[in-house]
TrEMBL record:
A motif ('HIGH' region) lies at residues 11-21. It comes from Thalassococcus lentus. Residues 338-464 form the Aminoacyl-tRNA synthetase class I anticodon-binding domain. Its main location: cytoplasm. Keywords: Aminoacyl-tRNA synthetase, ATP-binding, Cytoplasm, Ligase, Nucleotide-binding, Protein biosynthesis. This is Glutamate--tRNA ligase. Monomer.
């Protein structure tokens, strides 16, 4: 086995990319990327009835949005069915597996008798050590011979050593009676063939690990390093479900969270590096390690998510932010920006991104640059445009005609004008916000004037001053 770290993410394409799955993918991606390793993607589509191409597309789209790039092509598990069956036949030839001819009725009768006698209902096949000469010409399944005594120890990087008595494990079916391989066999063969060194997955797979290790041992293959991570719970501490809100990653994009903020938040969900809450991708790749993963379930906290996302919006480069906002609008099914709106937004981002926590939040603050003249004030803003205020705006306009359009000069002109009116600039701010943006909560008046420019600023102030009371 090479020294290169190889991790994988192996979702079942039966629906969207679940937030828990996204975090599993992220942990695998960080672990591999931080060590110069490979991060592989396998679509576990052996359940043909439930797997759909649409679900596969949704998973790939969710990973693309999150920025979790994988090495090589995505592998289809179903496509490897012949290879999986080949390994089962190899195990048969080695005597590590056997043909079991027991019918469903016989298995049920065994369990009923065991229940009545208070014995373990774990099925013990009478065919385990039968002479092949006594095999009937009838349908059979292929079962793995699990050791009956001793214990299986999973040396887990998160859970510690997990010990399971072998008499608690059944002789797992490898091939069904129609000759098709089961999922548990496929996972092991694929992980081995793909060279996976570290299996990082949800702790709901912990029991599977003990059964899967039986195949590794029987085939004399090296066992990967296991790390079973606790699941994500809702804010109330219960298993995450629809009642807690969004479960699919694409819903978070459509709600307007930036991908970098989402990666940062998901990385912190169940893993920690000292007291660090906010960090970059580069830091996450450098710091991420399995021993930083906690043993108890993490809780989804939307306030924390918004807080982290706000910090990422604030430090994003404007051009990249604009691209992501366009992606959000498409994901949310909202109208695309016009070329003029895009240009205006790009110019204004410097004064919008500091306090925005999500993209809807940012776009609300950007209303002044996205709207067009005549500006329609909303109910709250309209209250600031009474007769007196409109008169003041009318008097102010000539003072701005010849101002040099810099922040210092504009501040000086407005402060001087307020003084002449016997008031403070703060009193001018509300009607000016209403006139320039049609909103009561906006970026600073000076930022809006600088972004809008002299002509547009004067046009909006003049229009507001001339508006009659309705």
């Amino acid at each position: 086995m090479s020294d290169q770290v190889v991790t994988r993410f192996a979702p079942s394409p039966t629906g969207y990319l679940h937030i828990g799955g996204a975090r599993t993918a992220l942990f695998n991606w960080l672990y591999a990327r931080g060590r110069g390793g490979k991060f592989l993607l396998r679509i576990e589509d052996t359940d043909r009835a439930r797997s759909t191409p649409e679900a596969t597309a949704a998973i790939l789209k969710g990973m693309e949005w999150l920025g979790l790039d994988h090495d090589g092509e995505a592998v289809s598990q179903a496509a490897g069915a012949e290879r999986h069956a080949e390994v089962a036949h190899e195990l048969l030839a080695k005597g590590a597996a056997y043909k079991c001819f027991s019918t469903q009725d016989e298995i049920e009768a065994f369990r009923e008798a065991a229940r009545a006698e208070g014995r373990s209902t774990l099925f013990q096949s009478p065919w385990r050590d039968a002479d092949p000469a006594s095999h009937p010409d009838a349908p059979y399944v292929v079962r793995l011979k699990t050791p009956r005594d001793g214990e299986t120890v999973i040396q887990d990087q998160v859970q510690g050593d997990v010990r399971i008595r072998n008499d608690q494990l059944d002789d797992m079916i490898l091939l069904r009676s129609d000759g098709t391989p089961v999922y548990m066999l496929a996972v092991v063969v694929d992980d081995h063939d793909m060279g996976v060194t570290h299996v990082i997955r949800g702790d709901d797979h912990l029991n599977n690990a003990a059964r899967q290790m039986g195949i590794y041992t029987a085939m004399d293959w090296p066992t990967p390093t296991y790390a079973h991570i606790p699941l994500i719970h809702g804010p109330d501490g219960k298993k995450l479900s629809k009642r807690h809100g969004a479960l699919g990653v694409e819903e978070y994009q459509a709600m307007g969270y930036p991908a970098a903020g989402m990666r940062n938040y998901l990385a912190r969900l169940g893993w920690s590096h000292g007291d660090d809450e906010f960090f970059t991708d580069a830091q996450a790749k450098e710091w991420f390690d399995l021993n930083g993963i906690g043993k108890s379930p993490a809780r989804l906290d939307f306030k924390k998510l918004e807080n982290i996302c706000g910090q990422h919006i604030a430090v994003s480069e404007d051009a990249a932010l604009l691209q992501e906002i366009k992606g959000y609008l498409a994901a949310a099914g909202k109208d695309a920006l016009s070329a003029a709106q895009e240009h205006g937004l790009l110019t204004a981002l410097y004064c919008l991104k500091e306090r925005a926590r999500t993209f809807p939040d940012l776009l609300e603050k950007a209303h002044f640059i996205l709207t067009s003249t005549p500006v329609e004030p909303d109910e709250k803003a309209a209250k600031s445009l009474d007769t007196v205020s409109r008169g003041i705006l009318g008097s102010l306009t000539p003072h701005l005609q010849n101002a040099s359009w810099t922040r210092d000069d504009l501040e000086a002109v407005l402060n001087r004008f307020a003084e002449d009116q016997g008031t403070k600039f703060g009193k001018l701010a509300a009607p000016m916000r209403a006139a320039l943006a049609g909103r009561a909560a906006t970026p600073s008046v000076f930022d809006m004037m600088l972004v809008l420019g002299r002509e547009e600023t004067l046009a909006r102030l003049t229009q507001a001053a001339a508006t009659e009371d309705s």
